[in-house]
Specification:
147 residues; alpha+beta; 5-stranded antiparallel β-sheet; 5 strands; globular
Length: 147
Amino acid sequence: MATVELRFSAQPEHVRTARLVAAAVARRAGVDEAVLDEVRLAVGEACSRAVGLHRSHGITEPVSVVLTEEEKAFSIEVGDGVPGPGSDPATPGAHGASGGPDEGDGGEDEMGLAVISGLVDDVEVRSGAGGGTIRMSWPTALATVHP
């Protein structure tokens, strides 16, 4: 299992770099060429969402992206450092996937999650005291296809 980890400061200009890296690693992992645009768009949405959450909550730690090549699948986890609803009463809930309050960027957050869900069949959104994670995965071609 090969893994690539990317961490970047929560600046919108770094989202493009994350998209390019994700597409390159997905291609190398064997994700079908026809799906690479979906990978780029989904990673862009997830990273933009994480950047927005960090900026609106004053989080200074980097956004994390973990790209993992497994035997029959390629997965990407985009993590943010914003605690989920109920983790800390002083921090407003921002991860709408678990029914948290829609404050500030809540509508934009929900829209981003809807776009990701439309692009990726296998999506999991988690939120906890340490932050949130969007995990997306795509099937890969079998290794026997290569000459």
